[in-house]
DNA sequence: GAGCACTGC
């Protein structure tokens, strides 16, 4: 692509009579861009070669580098700690061995000798052993509980007492442990008995609830398993005894193995329609390996929308194939590449594959690419569709498998030139669906009533309630707990557990705890339970029919998070959550008529709802110049694309021919919004790369840095104010990070300052990645502290699009759209009201708010973006911060 | 004086 451009442009400029300086600089830039891209490619190749020589894979090298660095930095601190750690691990292992030994001993003993043949002493000894085992087990259980503590605020502790809070992340330091934990959870939850099994015969409750909701059953979501099939079902114990091979054979996909391989051989693109539980994600790639699709050293790739899925599926498949994870079977996700030169089966997140396109635009190292969970329609899968469809045209030997749930298969087939659909049955129980007779005005209240109604009248079994956000969940939790308290012993125990993404992970783990016999668990969840979290043993689902959805308005450049009715697809997905382990019931808090006539068929895909700045830049970097005619499964709004292109042009990532510039090529290396990418690159000129990288990392996790527990709001706000910087929030965030880094990334410090450790850890990961990328785009890391003017100038160089000026009445108006906006009350500048501000984002909640604001001087705008701002636009600026209270008076003049 | 659904690079 680039060479063609160069030729064309070279000839056009030579035909010009006089030297056109603009044209010349464009050509020079294009040349420099291609030289830069070549350097990148060369460096990547050298790096790969080195890795292959070292045989350990990239991961090993990274690990080794990290370890060396660590050792160098604080060897003295770490060694004693490591010693304790290893001693502890040894003791732990020894204890486990001993307990297992004891248990086996008792079992043997009981098997060999009946109680009656034993002497008194032998009987006593057996009794003693059993007691010992019990104590050991109880002890272990208690320790498990201790290990996962609630969020303790420091002031809860007495003086001198050490905090016992253990961040769950501490256990994630071993390689792959996040996935191990996930698996353990999954396994544990699978073992929990379905509540009703333990229950005695249903007791009659004569209980009158305040109000009741009338439900009518409308239809049953068909399951592929019937109640009767349960007899043939394997108990957990039996399943454990089954070998891996037997388990594989028992999966619904197994009988289709040969047909599937034949179909893949015959067709280049195949749509696989299969429900969850069919085993397609783990089995299909293995079948293809067996069928020889990786014979010529090429890989089979499989994308997943979520990190945990990519990791755990890879681990499972490695086990089934009897290889070590990271060798023949590996996974690749952000911050973690667990593959080697031996890898033939690679699981990855869709975003990772999207990035891989930058260094390998033809997917040359793959013979098969599987896009799994395509129906979820994430931004990345949607873009991948267009890209792989294009590649398939000039690489006829590349096989594509698109795997999706039932409803969308036809649509995918049509998109991929009527590719054949291969259907695989799943495993699911039927779910009865109930609708309300009349619409419910207050759905929170209706939820609570329904929960109690189910609790009082229905057989035991856990309830899952879908709510829109933290706020609703907390309200609902209070109401339920209050009503349960008032009903007292008239009803059985009801355990209420909340779950949403921002909840600390130890509290999230509570949803996997077993429900005690004769009690019922109610899980109040956001959409997180719709796809991301799978909770077993749910029998009842309550679905009010709403969700929060992010929408981007490209006309105003504003994001809004609003409560909207869900789609039919989403409603059915929610209902399906009731039928995973047994037949279930789903109560919809809307009428059957509303379902039929008011709900959309499908949720609007993400690509149509968000800012596409980064996506467009990536596509440009891949040489796709005509974005308006890019083959989208669902094309995003025209204005969104135009806005993205416009911004890229203003930022200098595209030249006036719409071609990618060197600056744009460098920006594309960063997995951030183009404005932020520009800001990072501008830090080179302003000699503050250290600061900008930190700020970028903090901004990208920002929403969840400050922790505000409901009962300690005042403390939390005071703690937050201590970080406030007079020039704005970017600098406050910088202070937070730097102070944290000074404490050696202490967890304790986070709790003392009401800062979420999890978010900070993530910011650290992001920062590390960005530092690596800065080196990649040939920028040295330097710091400008304690001076911070350059920090704000570099931010302005990226975000000059996001500037507002104080106007009459204390409101701000955006410079380009003249739109009235306000500083968000959480900002450190909320009461300061500087004349000119720059904002990181514009969000519409109750009003139009600028979130993350810094004070700037208008003359900087002319310095960093002379092509975008005219001096006239910026007139009448005093550039002085107005004295508090006097601001308005001065403005009226 | 507000309030952040969920992912991912």
Please describe what this structure looks like.
This protein has an eight-stranded mixed beta sheet, with helices on both faces. Strands 1-10-17-14-11-13-12 form a seven-stranded mixed beta sheet, with helices on both faces. Strands 18-19-20-22-21 form a five-stranded mixed β-barrel. Helix 15 packs across helix 16, helix 23 (674-685) packs across helix 29 and helix 24 crosses helix 26 (729-742). Among the domains are: 253-424, Rossmann fold, CATH 3.40.50; 431-598, P-loop containing nucleotide triphosphate hydrolases (Rossmann fold, 3-Layer(aba) Sandwich), CATH 3.40.50.300; 670-878, no CATH class. Strand 4 (329-333) and strand 5 form a beta hairpin. The chain is of the alpha/beta class and 893 residues long. Helix content is 46%, strand content 14%. It binds one DNA strand of 9 nucleotides through residues 305-307, 333-334, 349-352, 354-355, 376, 378-380, 468-471, 500-502, 526-528, 530-532, 547-550, 561, 563, 606, 614, 618, 670-672, 703-704, 708, 769, 824-826, 830, 843, 845-847, 849.
């Amino acid at each position: 692509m680039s060479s063609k451009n160069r030729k064309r442009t070279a000839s056009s400029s030579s035909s010009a009579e006089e030297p056109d300086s603009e044209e010349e600089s464009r050509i020079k830039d294009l040349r420099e861009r291609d030289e830069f891209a070549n350097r990148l490619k060369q460096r990547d190749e050298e790096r790969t070669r080195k890795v292959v020589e070292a045989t350990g894979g990239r991961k090993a090298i990274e690990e080794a580098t990290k370890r060396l660095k660590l050792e160098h930095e604080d060897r003295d601190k770490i060694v004693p700690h490591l010693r304790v750690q290893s001693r502890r691990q040894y003791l732990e292992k020894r204890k486990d061995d001993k307990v297992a030994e004891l248990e086996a001993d008792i079992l043997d003993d009981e098997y060999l000798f009946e109680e009656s043949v034993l002497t008194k002493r032998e009987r006593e000894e057996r009794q003693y052993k059993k007691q010992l085992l019990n104590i050991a087990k109880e002890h272990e259980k208690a320790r498990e509980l201790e290990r996962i503590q609630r969020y303790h605020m420091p002031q809860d502790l007495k003086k001198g007492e050490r905090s016992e809070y253990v961040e769950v992340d501490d256990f994630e330091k071993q390689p792959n442990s996040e996935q191990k934990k996930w698996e353990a959870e999954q396994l544990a939850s699978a073992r929990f008995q379905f509540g009703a099994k333990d229950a005695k015969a249903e007791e009659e409750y004569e209980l009158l609830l305040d109000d009741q909701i009338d439900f009518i059953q409308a239809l049953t979501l068909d399951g592929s398993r019937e109640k009767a099939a349960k007899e043939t079902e394997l108990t957990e114990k039996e399943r454990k005894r089954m070998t891996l091979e037997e388990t594989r054979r028992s999966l619904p996909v197994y009988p289709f193995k040969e047909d599937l391989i034949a179909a893949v051989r015959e067709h280049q693109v195949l749509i696989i329609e299969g429900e969850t539980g069919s085993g397609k994600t783990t089995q299909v790639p293995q079948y293809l390996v067996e069928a020889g699709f990786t014979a010529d050293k090429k890989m089979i790739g499989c994308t997943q929308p979520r990190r945990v899925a990519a990791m755990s599926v890879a681990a499972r498949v490695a086990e089934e194939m009897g290889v070590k994870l990271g060798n023949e079977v590996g996974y690749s996700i952000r911050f973690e590449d667990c593959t080697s030169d031996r890898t033939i089966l690679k699981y990855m997140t869709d975003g990772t594959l999207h990035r891989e396109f930058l260094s390998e635009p033809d997917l040359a190292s793959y013979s098969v690419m599987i896009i799994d969970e395509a129906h979820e329609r994430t931004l990345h899968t949607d873009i991948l569709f267009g890209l792989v469809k294009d590649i398939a045209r000039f690489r006829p030997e590349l096989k594509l498998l698109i795997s999706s749930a039932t409803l969308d298969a036809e649509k995918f087939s049509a998109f991929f030139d009527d590719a054949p659909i291969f259907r695989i049955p799943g495993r699911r129980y039927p779910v009865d669906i109930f609708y309300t007779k009349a619409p419910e005005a207050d759905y929170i209240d209706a939820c609570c009533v329904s929960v109690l109604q189910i609790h009082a009248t229905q057989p035991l079994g856990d309830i899952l309630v879908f709510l829109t956000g933290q706020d609703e969940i907390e309200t609902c939790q209070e109401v339920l707990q209050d009503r349960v308290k008032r009903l007292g012993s008239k009803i059985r125990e009801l355990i209420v557990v909340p779950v949403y993404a921002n909840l600390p992970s130890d509290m999230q783990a509570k949803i996997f705890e077993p429900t005690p016999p004769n009690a019922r668990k109610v899980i109040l969840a956001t959409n997180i339970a719709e796809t991301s979290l799978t909770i077993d043993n749910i029998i009842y689902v309550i679905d009010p029919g709403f969700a929060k959805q992010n929408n981007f308005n490209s006309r105003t450049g504003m994001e809004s998070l609003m409560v909207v009715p869900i789609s039919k697809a989403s409603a059915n997905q929610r209902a399906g959550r009731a039928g995973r382990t047994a037949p279930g019931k789903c109560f919809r808090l809307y009428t059957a008529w509303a379902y039929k006539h008011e709900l959309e068929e499908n949720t609007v895909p993400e690509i149509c709802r968000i800012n596409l700045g980064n996506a467009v830049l990536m596509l440009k970097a891949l040489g796709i110049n005509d974005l308006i005619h890019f083959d989208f499964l669902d094309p995003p709004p025209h204005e969104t694309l135009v806005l993205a292109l416009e911004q890229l042009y203003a930022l200098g990532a595209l030249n006036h021919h719409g071609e990618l510039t060197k600056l744009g090529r460098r920006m594309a290396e960063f997995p951030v919004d183009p404005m932020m990418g520009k800001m990072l690159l501008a830090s080179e000129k302003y000699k503050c790369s250290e600061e900008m990288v930190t700020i970028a990392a903090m901004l990208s996790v920002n929403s969840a840095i400050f922790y505000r527990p409901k009962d300690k709001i005042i403390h939390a706000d005071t703690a937050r104010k201590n970080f406030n910087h007079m020039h704005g929030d970017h600098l406050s965030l910088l202070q937070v990070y730097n102070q944290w880094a000074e404490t050696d990334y202490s967890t304790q410090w986070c709790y003392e300052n009401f800062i979420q450790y999890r978010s900070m850890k993530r910011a650290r990961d992001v920062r590390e990645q960005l530092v690596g990328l800065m080196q990649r785009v040939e920028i040295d890391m330097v710091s400008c502290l304690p001076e911070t003017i350059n920090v704000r100038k570099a931010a302005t160089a990226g975000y000059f699009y996001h500037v507002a000026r104080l106007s009459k009445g204390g409101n701000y108006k955006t410079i380009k759209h003249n739109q009235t906006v306000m500083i968000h009350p959480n900002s450190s500048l909320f009461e300061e009201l500087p004349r000119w501000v720059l904002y990181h984002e514009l969000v519409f909640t109750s009003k139009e708010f600028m979130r993350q604001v810094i004070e700037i001087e208008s003359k900087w705008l002319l310095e960093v973006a002379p092509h975008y701002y005219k001096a006239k636009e910026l007139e009448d600026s005093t550039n002085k911060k107005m004295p508090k209270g006097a601001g308005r008076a001065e403005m009226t003049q």
